[in-house]
Amino acid sequence: MFDYHALAPDFIVAGTVLAVLGADLFLPQSRKWLGAVVGILGLTLALIPVVTLAASDDQVRSMLDGSYVVDDFALVLKVFFILTGYVVLLMSVAYIEGDRYYQGEYYFLVLASLLGGMVMASSRDLLSLFVGLELVSGPAFLLAGWRKADARSNEAALKFFVIGVLSAAILAYGMSLVYGMTGSLNFEDIRAASASVAEEPVFVLGILLVLVGFGFKVSAVPFHFWAPDTYEGAPTPVTAYLSVGSKAAGFVGILLVSYIAFAGAPDIWGPALWILAALSMIVGNLVALRQENIVRLLAYSSIAHAGFMLVPFAVAGLVEGESLAQAFEATVSYVLIYGIMNLGAFAVVIAGARRTGSGQIKDWAGLGTYAPGIGILVTIFFFSLAGIPPLAGWYAKFVMFLAVLQNANGWTVALAAIAAVNAVIALYYYARVVQSVWMDPAPAELHPEPAPAGVAPSLVLAFGILAVAVVVVGVYPEAIGRFAEAASAIAGG
Amino acid sequence: MEWFDNGWGLSLVVFVPLVGALALLLVPRKDEETAKWLALLTATVSLFFAVVAAFRFDYGDAGALQLGTKLDWIPAIGSDYEIGIDGISLPLLVLSAAVVVLAIVYSWDHWPEPHNPKGFLALMLFLATGMAGTFVAQDLVLFFIFFELVLLPMYFMIGIWGDKSKIKLPGFDREVETRLYASIKFFLFTLFGSAFMLLGFLALRLHPDSGTFSIPELADLGAAGTFTGTFAFLVFGALFLGFAVKVPMWPLHTWLPDAHTAAPTVGSVLLAAILLKLGSYGFIRIAIPILPEEAKAWAPAIAILAVIAIIYGSLACLAQTDMKRLIAFSSVGHMGFVMLGIATLTPVGITAAVIGMVAHGVITGMLFFLAGSMQHRYHTREMSRLGGNLKLMPILGGMLGFTAMASLGLPGLAGFWGEFMALLGSYQPLDGLNLGVFRTAMVVGAIGTVLTAGYLLWMLQKVNLGEPKEEWEGHEFHDVDRYEMAAWVPLLISIVAIGVYPKIVTGAANDAVQALMDKAF
């Protein structure tokens, strides 16, 4: 019944979660950072069974009557979550150490949330998907409120919590309607049963409510309003995690329910996601233009990116087979690449905010002249987000356009045109940060004085990994494309 | 030399500067001499390979793609590393490699504020890779990457080293520095065009009968009449937006005067000499061969826009008080002649466009060098304050006079052929094109040549002739120094050489254009 080889990555991470919590009991205050080391070691260990699974002959390992599956999609996403965990831990060490409280618990929560993402990647029924999603969200609520003395952080956590609970309720309600109409929680069974109930209003409502629930999770407009406040108030490494790990978990959910469970009803979710995609791109980008704070700017940018990631869904109702897999692949590629570059952007915000003592764009003026390393990293990650070749972001947008234009009709061409115009608008606000860093004069008196010690070694390591990844993927996109292609075998097959 | 012909040679031309740029990042900032020599070395190596390519090139078969290769690059989307050159790309490739070397030589002792040669040179080398890559790419995705690669370095060049004077924009309360405004405007305009160009590329790949990004394969399909109807119309429109912004064609040109004027001297030179050609090259390499029927349908419109650009550019020049801005607007007019040549869709017209591109590259590049050096000495570009330059600096003034003559199309110098042949081509455009439109365009274009002569002579009269203004009395002016001499003499020689012996360019380009036209129409 259980295939322990297939479950090994999840088990190892689960064990790591407990080990981190246990280790925290015995670590003296000055050595709390060792918790992160334990976490990183555990994550590394979890990669071993992933590799052996990928190399094994069994392409699909199915458990619990097909409710829990380890296939290429699951493996690719598990690796993504593990690597996200790596980077988030590296970003956190120096940042959290400054606060001097609950460090062990912090690492525990990050890893627990990641585990939820890994579970979701394998979920093939509504119930395990829901449980996985709640495991992602629960710890994230706590993490958002980490700065307990900071009112903004409290506000961030409270907003995030209220919206999170609301969206979970909507999601559960939608799932219950779907279950009621199809008599099953399993994706394959729902797909098989959906043909006979596709016309039923209750079933349509169920699908739409599920999408709304995930829409909150990925912060798509109009379910986005919590994101900027939460992102701004939460500690920056947590924000990085929310905007990458938590959002990717949301996309895992949308991908699985749309392309597998509701594969029989793309004419319901296709148009709905068309609207979400268009709104997210337009609203996210236009509001980002007016931001003065870099974290808020990145929050709106991440809303806009959610829109770009939703674009390929709009075409899914019009194509089948190979082309459907192509649309799926486009979103997976986008999520993976977005993860790399957005983590990089937040890492550089940590370094830049530490160096300048501020998160306002204008206070970063001249940063490139007195801290050229940070300046170059800002350039790399922000222009990658803007999609400028030869940085990784271009490929994400490229496959997105390729997918949506596969079946050209008025609607898809219109969405592609909206995306193209938005890609140009987005450049303006990313370039504003770069302009401030390189072209505006540095203030006469640098704040804070004396200049703080350089960037923490753990953060340097994170930068190294991310910057290399952004450039390598940009020049040789097959490095991501191959995995996205493997992951998309489950759609349209 | 087998390895050289198998794509390695061209790859070296393209990527040696990139390696140089990365190596530059490792050079300590204080060590300017090392940085300069390293940049010069890599640019020269790149030029060397470009020249070797010109010698290895089989001129008897100039219409075929040569010295290229095709390797797997991104199988997930079916894109290959496919490169190669024919007689149209060859002169442009050599030109771009050469101009970069000259730009580095010129920079040797002329660093715009805020100095930092290391960063400046690294950007220049990045730019070199993007420019050369665009001319060798034979795959749409690869072309797109190189086409976009030039944006970042030029954005930084204008934004960091550009003009720091303030301007007030209509509709805004605050003043902004010219460089900031110009750099982001350049970036946004070009990105806007290329976003739509990319959609066009994808549409070509996704057409049910195509399934490839390879430019030669798409051209075969295009010649066979694969792309038709609304599809072809929309795709051509998308490509048109991308290339027309870059050329730039009226009315999408407004970024150009700002960018050229604000850019540091070397930036203006590279912009004028090479970057503008990426657009017109795109028309010749991609839009016309792949969508010949649409090219026919759009040709009269392109011709009309081209002559509007010629007339508008000339008239705008007459309204300028700023010397550099005048030269920038003259580019609008000159690229108008290039586009007029392309619009005729005849071998004569397109050969005119190729030679016009090369000629404009050396001549306008030279004019921007001169304008930059004059600004360096006078600390102003206002023509009303200049005058008697020929007396103050005889050599520099003489060069300015000579280059202006070349620019206005004096027979015997490089600028003549492009204008003359473009007008010739529009007398007898491709069969089936509206004769009335093209003959009118020819007449209007001819008037444009007169206006061109008018504004250049007017500029010479204000800047070069007459007596020096009182404010310069007692000033010692340093005439052309040795770095300037080293950078400029090759350009001046090539202006004469192309003028008296245009076969330098057309020798390769003529057959290639002929082959391209035979296939397409």
Tell me what the structure shows.
The complex is a heterodimer of chains A (493) and B (521). Chain A has 493 residues and is mainly α. Chain A has 19 helices and two strands. Chain A is globular, with a radius of gyration of 22 Å. Chain B contains 20 helices and four strands. In chain B, strand 3 and strand 4 form a beta hairpin. In chain B, helix 3 packs antiparallel against helix 11 and helix 4 runs antiparallel to helix 5. The two termini of chain B are 36 Å apart. Chains A and B meet through helix 16, helix 17 and helix 19 of A and helix 5, helix 6 and helix 7 of B.
What's the short story on this structure?
The complex is a heterodimer of chains A (493) and B (521). Chain A is mostly helical and 493 residues long.
Which tags fit this structure?
heterodimer; A: mainly alpha; two-stranded antiparallel sheet; globular; B: 521 residues; mainly alpha; 73% helix; 4% strand
- Multimeric organization: heterodimer
**Helix/strand-derived class of chain B?**
mainly alpha
Shape of chain B: globular
Instruction: Kindly state the number of beta strands of chain B.
Output: 4
Q: What's the alpha carbon Rg of chain A, rounded to whole Å? A: 22 Å
**Helix fraction of chain B by DSSP (H/I, runs of at least 4):** over 70%
Which strand order does the major sheet of chain A show? 1-2
Query: Major sheet of chain B: order of its strands?
Result: 1-2
Q: What's the helix count of chain A?
A: 19
Biggest β-sheet description of chain B = 2 strands, antiparallel
Q: What is the strand content of chain A?
A: under 5%
What proportion strand of chain B? under 5%
Could you say which overall geometry of chain A the principal axes of the C-alpha atoms support? globular
**Main β-sheet description of chain A:** 2 strands, antiparallel
- What structural category arises from helix and sheet content of chain A? mainly alpha
Helix content of chain A: over 70%
Order of helices and strands of chain A: HHEEHHHHHHHHHHHHHHHHH
